[in-house]
Structures are given as C-alpha cells and as structure tokens.
Amino acid sequence: MIDRLKKLVAVAEEMATEWNEACVGVDGIEVQVEGHGGIVRLGRVREYAVYSPDENVYMPEYAMYYDNFYFTWVDDTWVRNVSEYLKAPSPVYVEQEEDELPF
User: Fold this and answer.
1) Which runs of E-coded beta strand occur in the chain?
2) How many other CB atoms are found less than 10 A from the CB of residue 38?
3) By three-state DSSP, how is residue 89 classified?
4) Most-buried pick from 5, 43, 71, 86 (CB within 10 A)?
C-alpha cells in the first residue's frame, strides 16, 4: 500500500510540474489511495469578491479550489480514468457549400 501511495505522489508531482510549466500555479496537492483506486487533487487559491454595500468597500476573500483526477491501479502502475465524455471525438465542423440564389 505504501508503494502505491509513493507512486501516486510521484504522478501528482509530475502533474503539478506540467501545470507550472503551463503557467498555472499549484498551491496544494492532496493524494489519496484506497484499495485499487487513487485520487489526486491539485489545488489553486482563488479570489472571490465580497462587496459590503453598507461600507461601500470591496473586501476580497480567498479559498482553495481543487481539481480532482481519478486513477486505477493496473499492473503496478497508476492509470488515469478518463470519462467517456472526454474520450468522445469532437464533431468536425464541415463548411457546407451554399446554393446559388434562384434570382
């Protein structure tokens, strides 16, 4: 079990590195392993606006928001679960020829 956790932590670190290289800051990482399943949660601190109409003051507050990624333990490696929605090919936009106007 510890071996699985260590390998999933390595996967989480790789994901965080890819995000940082893409200029998306990662402020928190959570890793959870249960049996043959694992979850990697990459967190970012975001600001949400709080406006106080009584004082006419904008007071920003911050919260950690996580993006969840699910994995399955297969043949001594972690395989990311991708939903069927993401696997489906996107529809191809095809330009239709316009018929000439009859007049």
Assistant:
1) 28-34, 37-48, 51-52, 57-58, 61-74, 77-80
2) 25
3) coil
4) 71
State which H helix or E strand residue 8 sits in: helix 2-21
Q: Write phi, then psi, for 46 (nearest 5 degrees).
A: -125, 150
Predicted local confidence at residue 95, as pLDDT: 59
- The predicted-structure confidence for 33-63, as pLDDT tens digits, reads as follows 998 899 999 999 888 777 677 777 777 788 8
Contacts of 12 (CB under 8 A, 6+ apart): 29, 31, 40, 42
- Residue 10, by phi and psi: left (phi above 0), alpha (psi -120 to 50) or beta? alpha
The answer, as to whether pTM is greater than 0.90, is no
